[in-house]
Amino acid sequence: MAGPTKQRPPPAFVHYTFGAAPDPSFTQTTLSALNPNPELLVPSPSNPSQKIRPSSATSLLDMDLVPFFPARTPVLPIESSESVAMPSFSSAPSGPVVSHSPSVDAQWTKVTKGKKGTQISSKGKTNANSLAAQPDASSLGGEDIEMNTALQERFTPGKFHKRDLRNDTMKQEVTKFRSNYIEQYLKDSSLPADPRSWLAAPEFPTPEEAQDVNEPWMTVDPADGCVVMRGNQIKGARASKDEYLQAHYEMLREDTVRPLRETISWVKNNPDSREDQRQFGGNMGLYEKVKITAMTFSVRGLAIRVAFSLGKVGKNIRWEQSKRLITGSLVALSPSQDMFKTKCIIAVVAARPLVGLQSNPPEIDLFFARPEDIEIDPQMEFVMVEERASFFEATRHTMLALQKMMGESFPLQEHLVEVLKDVEPPQYLQNQPKLDLTTAMSPKNGGEGLENVDVINHWPTDPKTTLDKSQQKALHHILTKRLATVQGPPGTGKTHVSVMALKIMLQNWRIGDPPIIIACQTNHALDQLLRHVSEFEPHFARLGGRSKETGIIKERTLFNLKQGKRINFPHGMRGPARTNMDALSKDICLALSPIELGKGLMDHNLLRKLGLLTAAQCESLEKGDSQWTTAHADSEEFPLKTWGGKQIVENKRDLHRDNFGFEFEEVDLEFEQLKELEAENNAPDDAEQDYESLRGAAISLCDAYVGRPATLTDDEIKRMLLGQDDMWKINSRFRGAVYNYLLGQAKIILLGFLRSKAQAYYLHAAKFKAGGWEHDQIILRSQKIIGMTTTGLSKYRALVAALKPKIVLIEEAAETMEAPVISACVPSLEHLILVGDHKQLRPQCAVKDLMTDPFNLNVSLFERMVENEVEMSMLKRQRRMIPEVRRLLKPIYGSSIFDHPSMKDESVRPPVPGMGGVNSLFFTHYWPETMDEQMSSTNQMEADMIVGFFDYLCLNGMTEKQITVLTFYNGQRKLLLRKLRQHPNLGSRIFKVVTVDSYQGEENDVILLSLVRSNPDGKIGFLGVENRICVALSRAKRGFYLFGNGELLAGESKIWANVVSIMAGKKGDVPAAAPKCRIVFNFPLVCSNHARKTWIKDGSDFEVTYGGCDKPCGAVLACGHPCLLTCHPFEHDMIECQESCVRALPCGHPCKAACGDRCTCLICNMRYEKRSAVWDKSVGSGQEMWKACPDGGAKQDDAVLRKKLMELDLAAAAASAQGDHDLRDRYLLDQAVGIKTHENPAIEAARAKAASPVVTAPALTSSSGIDRNSASQNGVSGSGSLAPLKIKNRIVSKGMFSLEKGFISFEDLALSGERKSTPPTTPSPVKALSPLKVAPSFNTIVIKTPTKNTKTALNKTATGPAKSSTSAKTVTTAVKRPSAPGKPIAQTNRKSEQLIDFD
């Protein structure tokens, strides 16, 4: 027996009484049916906005409530060995069986206390026949289709339960079918079980289980009271089918319940603590001030809507990007005064519509696990906790399937349980062993045809096919073994072989054959596989989940397949179930009417009906106090209001509103993965709906009036009422307390009635869901392939079993827990195919203890079969990685895999640009790791290094889609994403930054692996897990670059030691390109233009390069201005020139925008689309000019304007030489700023005193044919002795106004000479100050708007980084590489935050 561990599942059967009982003395033995409100109406089932009279009861007073009085429910023990709970398969919350037949004599609940805490045991006596005839609602759930799309306070317009409304003109396909398989499946799931058996465990955890109280069905060690679980036995056979299924059931349940149990225990011991005060509690959700606000009537079940406060979270939540309270999550509630000391209520999140969560306070809908736990009192306040480490919805269906399998035949038991090594062909193939193989292969050299091959005895030896030898062997294994296990190392074509096998099976498919079931661990992998299937088979269906595909996969979802088809299923379960739910909804609405929002005071006749007031007391209320009160219309209608006076006041909803300002919780970057899991379990297979909402009528709850409190106990109020027939003789100051007492007692009685109705409602909701499957099977029977996830195998097991499939193929089988794969073994199964690789990722568990021996919950069925040497086949030739990357897998696979010849072809796998042929490298460092607030490991400096290298690769022509950043830690993933988004060149892109665990089966051209761990303690955590290492090393196709502490890894892991040795060139294959040693402390970059190396020590060193080397570019841009960047590998048409525009506009004014921007006239307030042509008023802007533009007219216009500008340059220079500095200053500032100097006093004050002689400058030359890296072709000529421009006493240029490629603010600007500039009081909307150069070019200075209390730096210039900084805030531009080709790059400082744009 495996070692003990604590575990808490639920009791078999819990018979109950309803809440705290009112005083028996108030119970009436005979009640007359009074109806003071004959017009009381309820919503119509077909239209909730329309009120109708209920069929049997027009008022709550007409309903028989006597059975719910305490005295009418005698507390007597029941003897019954048949009174047991049974497993179920549905998803709606449910509770214990309550028989409404007269045969139920009594029920009782026994509470005992011991060292394990309070324990509740239950027994009961009932009629066995009636019990067997009625399925256990504790195990039956509701339907996942109708959802609540509105949050109105009352019944919303629409249908009570959505009907099939069709346009009469719509073409409908009428299909008739009759099979009771699903109905029988439902009945079999509800058969009684021994209360001491694991089969008696209910679907949902019980409150006792969540509070660490042992349940009868648990195996307990009598020595210490610990619960004992059987583990997953890896080697050897299991004792029996029962032991095998029970072991997996117990481990799954513990994996689900333990995180919540530990969270409840922490809250109980720390009732006043906040969320963030729990160490390692990053997955805990703690919500206070939880109040009931409404009840929703859905076909999935009765949902209670609650509002809650985030006070213990302390921050606002971005719910659309949060894993908190996702649909299907398990939560626990307790009264705020109790804090889980005595009471615990288990519930499941039914829906989380964003419109409700984003309100203040937020609201969600809950399904209570047991009807006897439902609460309706809007005045009660609860605390609610969740634990996000596990997801209950993902395992609940699997646990139910395991229970159901105990009553079925178990195909493949001899292999799965008894681990028989030799595997026979499937029975259907033994009956007909000849198959047509022409879809996968053809005969070579005119050999015998392959249309009728005995695949068991005469498999083709050397066929003509695209499959390699190992793939052919694997294909043969898949087709001829009833349990086929195929291992596919990375890149060896597992999916390709699976698709070939499906092709052959479908080619040999005959009319009447059942569909083939295929399943994958993830929705993404399933969609990929179905996309391959769609290429050769149109008749397939996608079941469940939320497919992101918009093409053929979306069209083949079950929901879309049912559109336009009318299905006739005679005597199905769906119709009667809906009718019964409608009737129950009416009764529940009536029961809730006294506390419905907007209603008046509680009626005194109802209190009499409930046995809380006597006839004499009601009569006294109606007559009034003859001495003090005169009867009037109001007193006749609301006598209690008149009686209570000021002691009974109107009540308003007291919902707490949070105010956290602008503080938000950090976005959970893993929420998308969990959203997929949530969507899988709430798929719109049955109706068009938003899976995050719950459709159905809702009734809002609120006490309309409450009494003022008084210092009276319940016993004192009780004696007061018993001793007084005249209500007016009760002291007026106590009447508020008396009213509150009567209201509370009425709620208790009505709650008992509602809980009984809820029990029946859940049972019919389960039938409604099963009835939907009866219709679905008709559509699915006509399909040849049905795809779903492995979670869907359990969720839709009844539907799958009804289709009677013979073949089930499971991809990613080694990444899937054993239990979901077991659930695929429906009785009709003859052929199970498992495809995967146990050397890669294993299944994931929420409880890490269960991953260790003896439990081994993370060991898949695939791996267990391999470990027991059951027949298998292995693929060996990989087609993904270049050889120098593949060699790193040798420590894991040895010599088992080898390269396909194409992997050595550079046309197939070209080298990584900018790396000089070095396609794999290990950059090792000693930068220390840190921990984030979620206690996840991070490494800041390593992240900076990776972000800089990512930018370098993009500068060299790679796109962000070709690069994936992998890391082992979610904290590092968040850090990398944040830094990438903040990078000035990369911020607008979509990045692939993922954890290793979520990248199984994926690949990309270049992989950057962040290893994170670097500490003096020798701790490497996840990095020591072989399966994770295998995935991390095998994702790259062209380039693989590792960043981490190589010394630490080599010293703590044998595999990493071998990897480091291989990278160092000491072991294994040596790369063809030098150098042999690929472990470096300085990262080498190789310029693609000059083959010069740049050595990078840390992330900041990437700022000195634009993807090339440090040589100046010197080329001329298309606009005529020189390129100010250093050597760069990208084309100049990707650069946005920020010099002043020299174009004249059609309006006649000069352009005032930057050269690379859209032309703008500030005088006319116009912007022009045309950027290539130069407009000049003297040339004209008519139709002739535009016709001439395609034939070179724009170039002619440019030449004319350039000539005029040069003439003006010479004139300004001459004026300056004669001492007319004002003329030169005005010209300089007009050209640079784009605004007349006299219009801007602030810039007028900054005019420069120039003293340059007159020189002659040549015209601007075209950049056509000029080497972009040749400094001699920069267009600079002439000479002069212009006074140097200084930035805070730093000379920027000598001999001419040519500034470094940096940015300055007004406060930085001081021109040499007599005049000094001062900061302007009103900043001007300008982009660039471009002073005149003697040479025919304009260099750029970007003017920033100064702001207080901010810092800025001159980050990088054309020749190197500047080191000055100011107190002014700098808004700067960036080198941008757009995802769309042809978008230009800004030719300015690339380390800045954003592009200045005053448009």
UniProtKB/TrEMBL annotation:
InterPro entries tied to this protein: DNA2/NAM7-like, DNA2/NAM7-like_C, DNA2/NAM7_AAA_11, P-loop_NTPase, SF1_C_Upf1, ZNFX1
Domain ZNFX1: 283-387
Low complexity: compositionally biased ranges: 90-104, 1349-1376
DNA2/NAM7 helicase helicase domain mapped to chain residues: 467-547, 777-844
Coiled coil start-end: none
Polar residues biased stretches: 47-56, 118-132
Biased composition (Basic and acidic residues): 1390-1399
CDD domains: NF-X1-zinc-finger, SF1_C_Upf1
CC per GO annotation: nuclear RNA-directed RNA polymerase complex
Pfam family name, one: AAA_11
Domain DNA2/NAM7 helicase-like C-terminal intervals: 857-1046
Region (Disordered) residue spans: 27-56, 85-142, 1260-1280, 1349-1399
Molecular function GO terms recorded: helicase activity; hydrolase activity
Keyword list, A-Z: ATP-binding, Helicase, Hydrolase, Nucleotide-binding
GO biological process: regulatory ncRNA-mediated heterochromatin formation
Transmembrane segments: none
PANTHER family xrefs: DNA2/NAM7 HELICASE FAMILY, NFX1-TYPE ZINC FINGER-CONTAINING PROTEIN 1
Name under which the protein is recorded: P-loop containing nucleoside triphosphate hydrolase protein
Originating species: Tothia fuscella
Source organism phylogeny: Eukaryota, Fungi, Dikarya, Ascomycota, Pezizomycotina
